[in-house]
Amino acid sequence: MTATEPLDRLIEAYAKLVVRIGVNVQFGQRVVIRGAVEHAPVARVIAQEAYRAGASLVTIDYTDPVLTRAAVDHAPQEQLGRVLPHQVEGIRAWREDRPALITLTGNPHPTLMEGADPARLAASMPIDLMKEFLPIITTNLIAWTVVGAPNPAWAQTVLGEPDVDRLWQAVAVAMRLDQDDPVDAWKQHIAKLHQRRDLLNARGFDRIRYRGPGTDLTVGLVPGSSWMSGAVTNDDGTDFVPNMPTEEVFTSPDWRRADGNLTTTAPFFLAAVNTLVDGLRLDFHDGTIRGAAADRGEVAVQTHLDGVPRARHLGEVAIVDGDSAVRRTGLTYSDMLYDENAGSHVAFGSGFATTIQRGTELSPDERIEVGVNQSNTHVDVVVGSPAVEIDGIDADGRAVPITRGDVFVLDTA
Predict the structure, then answer these.
(1) Residue 297 pLDDT > 70, yes or no?
(2) DSSP code for 296
(3) Which residues of 197-230 are buried (b: 16+ CB within 10 A; e: fewer)?
(4) What tens digit of pLDDT does each residue of 231-241 get?
(5) Residue pLDDT, tens place only, 128-184
(6) Which residue of 164, 180, 199, 409 has the fewest C-beta atoms within 10 A of its own C-beta?
(7) Helix (H, G, I), strand (E, B) or coil at 398
(8) Are both 299 and 403 inside the same structural domain?
(9) pTM value?
(10) Do 166 and 188 fall into the same domain?
């Protein structure tokens, strides 16, 4: 696809990538699409493509952020965050029929929660849904992916004007739709990420260190844990790509072993409370976030850390270098999916059971015991930039360069 292609053709090509590479829909499989009501135009095109791929049933579960704000402002305190039994059962049913799950992102109301009471905003989180949802996702029980859905408000945030066509062109570059054969381009890209994953696994590092302006953080890894990347395979043997775009290699660290400080290099939305956070600074000691400050969104972050059990521990460390297609667009998206793939990052909250041997067979308490954090949140924060160096440190304390000047150099180290 090129910038001169009609927009409807670009969106159709996008939907094909999402359905056939992102979740790899199988013949006769059910498909669930989740997104805000403003994402409907994109959701509908993806639904049509899912049926073309052989889906048996496609449903779209819409949320309305404006309704959430109304509840935060006016609902009785005891009703905030309430989840009805049929909602829980709907997600629990995924364990039985294993649908392909497509989640749409791209904030249609970036300033909607400004001025909201932080405590009521935190209380509005649907914790009971997250308790059902996150264990299914973090263990890759089903094929799932998260993808962007351009809309006027997101375009305004990214571009300074509500030019959805222009945002689509940027998304096309990030998704490799500007290549002659996007499917082949994705296959080559995933192969490159797998090579990086294998290099990291072969080294067996004990710790990872991020070091740059405002950041000096050392994070210990779980002995025998594995790095992951690009495409993964679910319990049914289906290959899928959890994030599109994706530029990362990642693992879940030992939640007990993080010391130092970090400063974010890109703003992000704390999605659980729909709040923009910028200039976040976190201090770690013995694996725990002991201090948090931010230029914007500080109260929301602190309330989130205080309100969600085990949110103060890390669940992911990830490496992204300057070869990122998202980085090539030259834009800041203020959206976790895109911005985490523009730079190396860490995440506080839940880790991935799939990074440890037989991790999906362990109970949440057993995963915590071996070092993989379990929580009802997972928040990625970008710390990478050309000025940030990443080292792997082996058990003997020897540091090996992984990135320098935002270039992945481990294969030449």
Answers:
(1) yes
(2) B
(3) bebbeeeebbbbbbbbeebebbbbbbeebbbbbb
(4) 888 888 999 99
(5) 999 999 899 888 999 999 999 999 999 999 999 999 999 999 999 999 999 999 989
(6) 180
(7) coil
(8) yes
(9) 0.85
(10) no
Concatenated DSSP letters of 225-291: ---EES-EE-TTS-EE-SEES---EEE-EEEEEEEEEEE-SS-EEEGGGTEEEBS-EEEEETTEEEE
Residues 160 and 198 in one domain: no
Q: Are residues 168 and 24 in the same domain?
A: yes
Q: Is residue 139 part of a domain?
A: yes
Say if residue 4's pLDDT is above 50: no
Question: Is-contact 280 62, C-beta < 8 A?
Answer: no
Find the angle CA(131)-CA(346)-CA(390) to the nearest 5 degrees.
160
Range of the domain at 266: 182-231+245-412
pLDDT in tens, 352-398: 999 999 998 999 999 999 999 999 999 999 999 999 999 999 999 99
Residue 361 gets which letter from DSSP? G
User: How many residues are there in the chain?
Assistant: 413
Q: Has residue 239 been placed in a domain?
A: no
Model confidence band, residue 3 (pLDDT cutoffs 50, 70, 90): very low
Mean pLDDT over residues 70-82, rounded?
A: 96
Domain count, the chain: 2
Q: Going along 178-235, which residue ranges are E strands?
A: 207-212, 215-221, 228-229, 232-233
Please report whether residue 379 resides in a domain.
yes
What the block records as the tokens of 240 is: 């899928």
Residues 6+ apart with CB under 8 A from 321: 247, 344, 403, 406, 407, 408
User: Does the pLDDT of residue 271 top 90, yes or no?
Assistant: no
d(CA 43, CA 317): 31
Contacts of 75 (CB under 8 A, 6+ apart): none
Give the integer Cα–Cα distance in Å for 349 and 251.
13
Domain assignment present for residue 240? The answer is no
Find the CATH number of the domain harbouring 76.
3.40.1830.10
